[in-house]
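[SOLVED] Predicted holo structure with adenosine-5'-triphosphate

Edit: marking solved, answer below. Original request kept for reference. I posted the sequence and ligand SMILES and asked for the 3D complex as C-alpha cells.
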Amino acid sequence: MITFRDVHVTYPTGTKGLDGVSLEIPEGEFVVVVGLSGAGKSTLVRAVNGLVPVTSGELEVNGQRVDGARGGTLRRLRADVGMIFQGFNLVTRVSVLRNVLMGRLSHSPVSSLFGVYGAADKEIAFDALDRVGILDKAYVRASRLSGGQQQRVAIARVLAQQPHVVLADEPVASLDPPTANAVMADLRRVQRQLGITTVVNLHFLDLAKSFADRIVGMRAGRIVFDGPAAEVDDRVFESIYGRSLSVQDVSTAEVDRLT
Ligand SMILES: Nc1ncnc2c1ncn2[C@@H]1O[C@H](COP(=O)(O)OP(=O)(O)OP(=O)(O)O)[C@@H](O)[C@H]1O
C-alpha cells in the first residue's frame, strides 16, 4: 500500500512538483500516471522511493514513512521498491546476467561486492530472465541487445530484487510503438503473476488505457482525475491535458487502428 497525504514537493528553484497530492494505491494494483510534460508525473513516482524529497505532507509505503527517511531506513525502503527508467540504466559492457544479478545487491551485499553470487541468486536471476522471455540472452553483452530487450533486462533486474513495489518512469518512451506495446505487455504480465504494486508514468493515453487498472491524471502538480481506465473519455482527457485529443496523443499503432 502506498499512501500520499497532502504531499507537497517544492524544488530548490521554487517550482512546485507536487501541490497537495492525496492518493492511496492498494497492494497489487497497476496504476498509470498520465499528464502533460511538467505535470508532476516523475516527481510523484520518484517521491515514492525518496529520490525526490517531500517538502510537506506524509508519504507511506507499506507502513513505512518515506518523508524524512534517511540512512538505513531509506536503504531498506529502496531495497523493497524497484525502479525502471526510460534509459534502461544498464551496465552495457557486462553480460545480461550480471546486470540482472545487480538486482540482488541489496540482498547479498558482501558477496556481490566481489562479483561472486551464490547459486540461489543465480536461480532468481535466471527465473527473472525467463519471465520476460530473454533467458537465451543471459550470457550476451547487454550492449548487443535491442532497446526492447534492454528494457526487458531492466525489468528482470527489478524482479531479481524481489520488491513489493515497482516504479517505472516513462519505461517505453524511447521505444518504437510496437516494441513499447510488447514491453508494456511483459511488465503487465509479470506484475499480474507476482502481484507487485506498480506505478508507471506513460506519455501515450492509448497505452495507459490498454494496460492500467487505474489511471491517475495530473496537471500542474495536482491530481485532476483518478479512476478506472474505462472511464477515461474525451471530457476526462480535456481535464488532464486542457485541450481535446489530437493525433500526437496516441501511439502510431493506435493511429493505424483508427485510420
Ligand atoms: N530537479 C528539479 N529542479 C527544479 N525543478 C524541477 C526538477 N525536476 C522537475 N522540476 C519541475 O517540476 C515540475 C514537474 O516536473 P516532473 O518532471 O515531475 O513532470 P513530468 O510530468 O514528469 O514531466 P515530463 O513528462 O516532461 O517528465 C516541472 O515544472 C519541472 O520543470
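OP edit: Residues 11, 13, 15, 17, 35, 37-43 surround adenosine-5'-triphosphate (CB under 6 Å). Thanks to everyone who chimed in.
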